[in-house]
Automatic annotation (TrEMBL):
Keywords: NADP. InterPro entries: NAD(P)-bd_dom_sf, Sc_DH/Rdtase_CS, SDR_enzymes, SDR_fam. It comes from the Eukaryota. PANTHER family: CHAIN DEHYDROGENASE (ATSC), PUTATIVE-RELATED (PTHR45458:SF3), SHORT-CHAIN DEHYDROGENASE/REDUCTASE SDR (PTHR45458). This is NAD(P)-binding protein. GO terms for molecular function: oxidoreductase activity, acting on the CH-OH group of donors, NAD or NADP as acceptor. Gene3D superfamilies: NAD(P)-binding Rossmann-like Domain. Coiled coil: none annotated. It comes from Jaapia argillacea MUCL 33604. The lineage of its organism: Eukaryota, Fungi, Dikarya, Basidiomycota, Agaricomycotina. PROSITE patterns: ADH_SHORT (PS00061).
Amino acid sequence: MPSYVITGASRGIGLEFVRQLSASADNQVFGIVRNPATATKLTALGRQNVHVLQADIVDVEALKSAAAEVGRMTGGALDVLINNAALVGGDNQSLTLSTYPEGQESVLADDLRQNFEVNVIGVINTINAFLPLLRKGNLKQVITLSTGLADTKVILDASFPVHAPYSITKAALNMVVAKYAAEFKKEGLIFLAISPGVVNTAEKPPSPEQIEGYKWMVARFQEAAPTWDGQALSPEVSVKMMLDVVANLSEKNSGAFVSQYGNQKWL
Ligand SMILES: NC(=O)c1ccc[n+]([C@@H]2O[C@H](COP(=O)([O-])OP(=O)(O)OC[C@H]3O[C@@H](n4cnc5c(N)ncnc54)[C@H](OP(=O)(O)O)[C@@H]3O)[C@@H](O)[C@H]2O)c1
């Protein structure tokens, strides 16, 4: 019975991973959320093979408790960990590294720290908490959600100086994935950083400002990828594409950073 742990399972792409993976009754799927009481879309799946666990990924003890609970239910093993949870967006994402207002240097530093805390340290915490179980699993896969915005070529080709703390920390995350891949190559653990593409995970209709922001972003991305139609993927399509990539994963790909196409075509 393959077992999967997915962080950030309350909504968006994480929720869709749980939905698709739990469609097979053979899979045992653990969704980790910060607040089970508000993770109503996850609990509404109502599937017997879905288990909801609580942990903020910056909280090492909560992650260890979640891992202990998974171990109790799987007999001490885990096949696949999907690091999906991340700090995405935020109030200042339209600022660049040089346009935080005069006197607000501490706000920039705080944004960088908070993104690093969740997107880098939080993922390392998660991997370390589940490593003992993964070592005893059959598939031994750790899939980590990255973004095309972590690729320097995209940033340059698209002239995209905004979303800086997010891009910077996701680029660092790609290195985290490579470091683990290098460390655990001999043990047969496989680590992959994967971008889901541009995916519409909005919980409510966009404001006029958000629509304008999205149009601006599409125009920038089309500078980097002129054939892209500007349409965001649904979580359903993106997750299906990523699971196809994961299904074809082998040890020789460990440590790679790929898109939902399994290569460096980000859009
Ligand atoms: N959507 C896209 O276009 C896109 C593009 C490139 C990459 N990605 C990557 O894909 C992943 C999912 O994106 P998304 O659009 O689905 O994001 P989202 O809708 O913003 O959802 C983020 C998820 O992460 C959880 N989370 C945030 N901070 C956490 C923490 N400290 N501890 C535990 N959970 C935490 C959130 O939980 P709460 O519900 O408690 O807030 C939520 O479940 C992210 O890694 C993102 O960087 C997305």
